[in-house]
Amino acid sequence: MKCGAAVAALSVALVHGGVAFADDAAGDEDDIRNMNQITVYGEKRETTLQDAPIALSAITGDILEQAGITDPSQLNGYVPGLMITKSGGSERIVTIRGVGQQTPENFATIPGVSFHVDGAFLPNSIALNMGFFDVDRIEVLRGPQGTVFGQSSTGGSINVITNQPTLGESKGTFKATLGDYNYVQGFASYNVPIGETAAIRGSIQQTSHDGYATATSIDGGYELDDADNEHYRLAALWEPTDKLSTTLSYTLYNDKHNGGALKNIEDPNPDIREVTQDFPAKFKLRSELATLNVSYELPFATLKSVTSYQDMSHDQSFDADRLDLATYGGYDHVATWATEAETFMEELTISSLPESGIDWIAGVFYSNTDSAQYVVEYRELGVTSIPGLPVLPRDTTPAEIPSNLAYENISTVNRESIAPFFQATIPLMENLSATVGARYNDDKYDGEGASYYSTPTASSFATQTWTGKVGLDYDISEDSMVYASWSRGYKPGGLNGGTSGALVVSSTYDEETVEAIEFGSKNTFLDGRATLNASVFFNQYENMQFIEEDPIPYAGGIGNIPEAETYGIELEGSYLTFNDQLMLGGNMAMLDGEVTADYVALDRRLADLAGDEAVNSGATYPWSYDWFLARQSAGVQVEGNTPPNLADLTYNLYAAWFQPVGDHGELTSRIENVYVGEYEARIFNTAGADDVPSYSLWNAYFQYQPNEAPWFVSASITNIGDEEGISGRFVDPYSSGTVSNEYVPPRQLLVTFGFEF
């Protein structure tokens, strides 16, 4: 699709509801504010947001700052169909259009929405805790990306593109932000040219704030949801010719703070910012990422290589029952949950030149991840005090296990993936093009695990399958396009290491596939002053992976629901009016779905209740046949239920006003409303546990930018009404089986002063 001739550089930069300022408006005789085409990489080829025949959203770094977004879970409502919520500890549940990862607590599984930073694939959802740092933009592709992104992309892909070094100019940026809860953030970057062919860019950011919530049953009160982290990045660019470009970057992230605030729904304290917990939560994360990007233009194609190495170590502890001793009648505490992971990735591609008649890309992807996990959990009921809860040595023998040890696990996993792929867009007629792509996925899993300090058991698993895409796009006019596509994505199967003696859960689980049909349209109106994009989709799940409980406690694992489907409609649009001073826009998604297969799954909470009733009726606790039978009888028929994390309605509506202040500068004002509708937290749809209510937030942003000065000052107010919205619901499949709410951050005022030099 081409742009209207009346506007040299058109269209809204952001579909989510924000305003991005054009870096260069030269040649735009109408000087239309932020109407230059934003460049995106989409399916690993450079295009523009309005010309890409896929469901793609882009969010610039400016918008992240204006909306106060520092954590991925704050993206909810900004991208149609995207849901990111916390799990029990540091893991994240990420879904797009209801497709993604439902099993982040299980060490052997992989996400269903792939996460990339500058082309580097990060396979562990813990990496999302790093937040966003020195970001140019975030691109979110919706729907299975089975060709150019492959496994881990059944729901879509999130690609973070950072600010890169630039040749020929020395420039720097400094920003300082202060706010409520003793919020302090400092950011600085500097770009240094080295001759005419090289440049180095360094950036640093440090963030801290007090906790948004307090654990009241720890002496003196104990802050939760605080922040104390630091980011460092150094990137070097070398372009000896106009055909060769090489960028080497290194990023270090350190985080050490108290844990997150998840409030038990049975907490007797009605204040959502006060949790009745009696065990201190800790969180530590250190992540290093080194990436080498090389691009070389051949006479007939462009050759690219992305090589990355990630080293991540993480440790946490938390109150698993999320209550105090008196309220819970005992304690259930995780003394440590430690994870280590090393990932090496290489992707080599060759693609057509920009003006080629056929747009094509071919490549091969390789990744190898070594991970290790160590968990120690203690539980005891009917006691009046909590003893010391040590992190036991890993060489503890079964004879030395204390009586209050509820769970212990030591696991190692190696995942290796290799996948050649190809995709081409071929013009069939003057305005009609076809896209065809395929990917062959070969994934291997080798693991070793032991629970309760028993002898480790080795296991292995392999999956090979094809994924791909077929699509058509038609340019109705220079400003309007329609497209249709079929795509297939998958997640590998694997092994359940802790299912020894299990009655229901199998020792293996099958690969998950998603086939999607999508119809869409992208349109530009009024000489580039308005856009309206729409997409309608239907997803067919096969063997949807979920956490499955077994009648034997701690013998659960990953199971497969045979069939499910999700479907919906998404709209995105913008309109610039009143002499280019008023920008209106937003996005909306309406989603639904259901499990379409006959399947009975065991809800941990209902199984526990059934087991307790059996004991009250005379069954022997634990491990008696009658007790197992009672727990198994609590199975739930999930056919007809709504899949998890499928909000019925989400939207973001905004209005921005650009007001000249005499001849001295400009005041930008923006107000937005973010709404996230009702959804189910799990496949069981259990009333009182899985039904998460909707919430609505109002945010505002103001910025003054002088015309001839290198500084600006801004203020943002988030959650103006101090709403108590539930941003996530966690139903613990392990330990005490508690149900906890994660709440949106409280109202917060942030003031930023920025300076360029």
TrEMBL record:
Its main location: membrane. Residues 245-720 form the TonB-dependent receptor-like beta-barrel domain. It is found in: Cell outer membrane. It holds the Pfam family Plug. Residues 1-22 form the signal peptide. Residues 49-156 form the TonB-dependent receptor plug domain. Belongs to the TonB-dependent receptor family. This is TonB-dependent receptor. It comes from Hyphomonas atlantica. The lineage of its organism: Bacteria, Pseudomonadati, Pseudomonadota, Alphaproteobacteria, Hyphomonadales.
